[in-house]
Amino acid sequence: MTMFNKDKKSKNENVSVSRRSFLKGMMATSAVAVIGPSLLVPKTASAATIAERAEWKLTGSHWGAFRAKIHGGKVTEVKAFELDKYPTDMLQGIEGIIYSPSRVRYPMVRLDWYLNREKSDTKQRGDNRFIRVTWDQALDMFYEELERVQNTYGPSGLHTGANGWRATGQLHSCGSHMARAIAMHGASVKDVGDYSTGAGQTILPYVLGSTEVYAPGTSWQLILDNSKTIILWATDPVKNLQVGWNCETHDSFEYLEALRDKVAEKKIRVISVDPVKNKTQNFLGNEHRYINPHTDVPFMLAVAHTMVKEDLHDKKFLDTYALGFDEFLKYVQGETEDKVEKTPEWASEICGVSPDDIRDFARLITNGRTQLLFGWSIQRQEHGEQPYWMGAVLAAMIGQIGLPGGGISYGHHYSSIGVPTSGAVGAGAFPRNPDSGQKPRHESKDFKGASSTIPVARFVDALQNPGKVIEANGSKITFPDIKMMVFTGCNPWHRHQDRNNMKVAFQKLETVIAIDYNWTATCRFSDIVLPACTQYERNDLDIYGSYRAKGLLGMKKLVDPLFQSKTDFEIFTELTKRWGKSKEYTQGKSEVQWLEKLYNKSKDANVGKWDMPDFHEFWKEGYFHFGDGENWTRHADFREDPEVNALGTPSGFIEIYSRKIARFGYEHCKGHPMWFEKTERSHGGPKSAEFPVWMQSCHPNKRLHSQMCESEKFRATYTVQGREPVYMNSVDAKKRGIKDGDIVRVFNDRGQLLAGAVIDDNYPVSVIRIEEGAWYSPEDESIGSLCTYGDPNNLTMDVGTSELAQATSANTCQVEFEKFKGKAPAVNAFGGPIEIV
Q1: Minimal CA–CA distance to 473: which of 804, 113, 38, 725?
Q2: What angle do CA 44, 50, 53 make, to 5 degrees?
Q3: Closest Cα to residue 92, out of 75, 103, 77?
Q4: Tens of pLDDT along 351-405?
Q5: Fewer CB within 10 Å: C terminus or N terminus of the chain?
Q6: Which CATH architecture has domain 677-837?
Q7: Class of CATH domain 198-418+633-664
Q8: Model confidence over 222-241: pLDDT tens digits?
Q9: What is the pTM of this model?
Q10: Is residue 125 a contact partner of residue 110, using CB atoms and an 8 Å limit?
């Protein structure tokens, strides 16, 4: 093997390129043969001895708790935990995560960065050429870069990103480990908000007093017992409830089955408001209210107009619990600046729903108890604050907020919200911040006039435009001049928009470090990549059910860390040794001692309610059951006494008109909900002549975002010719000469991709779906390169929702598509880097 001298600058001396040999014949090779027996069995036991043993271990995941059969030191079978009555088939992808050919096996460094450090040719970033180094070398480089950036640029030069779903478990939460370790070295630029609910979590505190999107919701049983009508507004709980933030219980499905029976018996009327007939609608067999993409607000404004004109709104509720209806009403009646009355006839031209159907909808939702259940997708668009605000206004006009089976929820599709909570306190978490009184190695907090926190969805804008000032939620944000980024347990090259714009932005960075167990596109576009182990290769604790709190789960390590991967605890302990802070970092505790400490936080907090065993007994059993909770109605206390139980809004009431937002003076988010035209929109909207098709990039049905895309056998159950599916209407397909199973090129003025055609008339004309989380697979590192697997964020637009939230607008996306002709280029998203030896 040719070894590199770090001081050499030539890229041509003694360099040979070879794809790692394990990629050859990967699909036909077993994991044992790929990984090798020495990595699968303890050194202290012979392979023959291990082969005779088999045991089942209990652990957890975003996809639910499960028992894994360990045979020969390898996971050979996975079965759902016996308390999970509705397990997802995604559990069958777990083995493929552990033994994926895309695992990060060793510490790796991008070739040109290895040769030239911060002076490397950043246009090569993404060429996937890496050289293997030792752990000591990699961590030394990590530390040296932290030192260089702090000494040269100060904290404004370093961005630390850990915003994302990470793996489950309280001890090994990677974001906490990175945040604590880096803060012990010095300050850095942080993110605020998230990609899932950025607009919603910003607007709703002004309107309803809390973020709502992550709040507990009215119990499903009370909805089933009291609702006459349920409106599923751009939400697909049957699809999305397969996963959870913590270990998911899937208990919501019991209520969804009961709802299906009530729909069949015509005891509850359920209507999906959505351009697409989604999985939940097909499961429940409920009605569909088609609406043109991005036009929910005109539709809702016309519904409000009808409610007022026909005297269907609850004036007493508005007078008692809300402020600002009169100001809003003037807009609806065309008495403000635009002079447009928001009639059903006006809305019909935009939303594609007939005036009579709009009026009928208004009458329906005001006839008896109505529960509005909103999803998250409609706030991930330009002006995404508006449909959420307008939904709250409709709920206030109906007047049932705080009643069982009435009002509005923004979260019943998420982590079993609506299943009564036990009220138990789960395990504590590894501390995210340094302990009180500790000083970092670099004490400077001088961000050189720039902001220390930026909206997460604007980080690429910040890379491209240091010093730019933007408005965000009532403040002015000055973008810092970021030179180095560190990512752990998150994949911005999945979740962020406009890949080609990202390529340009990342060329401005001097150093990028990624810590992950998979060779994601984020690793591909990094300079130093450190191999973390999967959650199945370490011990941990987690609550069983994020909101349900059904029990406490001991997450047993299934196998030892593969290759040279380490836990986040080990990685950052070793890193902090380099500036003498490892004892402070770990508090002098081992992994087992931390697990016991975190468990005891739960045990102490639950004294008097549950008699929890000591840690060692709990760990032996692996699970403690907290049981069921009581039914509960959201906002019932506010309805009972709005003065004593005031909302968290400035006034304490529902704010249909927000004086505070109005004072901001924003162009795209004013004092009450409004209709704003989009930069691009299908069905007659802007740019629809050039790019007539709306691309929906919603949460996937067979993944958690990009997690599990690496699971080879499971991915093969849904891909088309090895590519991500693109779902389309038969009319659109026939018009373009496309047949089911063809490879399709989808494109716009931002990018292009290949995907496999699935013809499905659940999708209307001029609407296609490519689910987010598909791994980015560019032919090469060049700008505009074709993505050969089908990442929809090649095509999405990177603009903020408005000056208020500055959140992602991913769903504002117009495209065209055609049948791909000729030999399709190979998919190169999976399998790791090109290793230079």
Answers
A1: 804
A2: 135
A3: 77
A4: 999 999 999 999 999 999 999 999 999 999 999 999 999 999 999 999 999 999 9
A5: N
A6: Beta Barrel (2.40)
A7: alpha beta
A8: 999 999 999 999 999 999 99
A9: 0.93
A10: yes
